[in-house]
Amino acid sequence: MTADDREQGITAYVALGSNINDREHYLQNAIAALDQEAGITVTGLSSIYETEPVGYVDQSAFLNMVIQLRTNLPAEALLFTLLGIENRLGRTRDLRWGPRTIDLDLLLYGDEQLTTPDLIIPHPRMHERAFVLVPLTEVLYTRQDAAFEFISAHLEKLEGKEGVVLWKKAQ
């Protein structure tokens, strides 16, 4: 990607999840924090879905959603911004896949494919997770492009979609 592409803005998709205390509050605060960051504009929101935990299952259900961003930040700078917001909202990493106030995962960054020590794009496990694919498909629906077709095809093949329940419709 060129500097001109970034200047125009890149469309990126971020998955959000929370399962501690007022889960919706953490989702809303993360969205507001992202929208206030220089170089980032939130341009789309999925509905909010309630999902059972994956990995470490002895914890509360999650609220999950996906947001669409327009950004002129490089991918790694966007990742570090996401990590900073997680930190400000009280995210701790005591237990892999454990409870969290907020989890922000960079799923897609334009059409880029990137592998660095800190970041892999597209997100390497998103195609395995209904709690990511269901809201991502919802946000991508308006595009009806190759990305939408690709994600929809993965969602069709994925088992466990019944564990992703609409909690609050997008407004």
UniProtKB/TrEMBL annotation:
Pathway named in the protein's UniProt entry: Cofactor biosynthesis; tetrahydrofolate biosynthesis; 2-amino-4-hydroxy-6-hydroxymethyl-7,8-dihydropteridine diphosphate from 7,8-dihydroneopterin triphosphate: step 4/4
Entry keyword annotation includes Nucleotide-binding: yes
Gene Ontology BP term (one): tetrahydrofolate biosynthetic process
TM stretches of this protein: none
Listed Gene3D superfamilies: 7,8-Dihydro-6-hydroxymethylpterin-pyrophosphokinase HPPK
Keywords assigned by UniProt, alphabetized: ATP-binding, Folate biosynthesis, Kinase, Nucleotide-binding, Transferase
Segments forming domain 7,8-dihydro-6-hydroxymethylpterin-pyrophosphokinase: 96-107
EC number per UniProt: 2.7.6.3
A Pfam family per the record: HPPK
Record GO terms (molecular function): 2-amino-4-hydroxy-6-hydroxymethyldihydropteridine diphosphokinase activity; ATP binding; kinase activity
Reactions this protein catalyses: 6-hydroxymethyl-7,8-dihydropterin + ATP = (7,8-dihydropterin-6-yl)methyl diphosphate + AMP + H(+)
Cited NCBIfam families: folK
PANTHER family in the record: 2-AMINO-4-HYDROXY-6-HYDROXYMETHYLDIHYDROPTERIDINE PYROPHOSPHOKINASE (PTHR43071)
Stated name of the protein: 2-amino-4-hydroxy-6-hydroxymethyldihydropteridine diphosphokinase
Organism of origin: Paenibacillus ferrarius
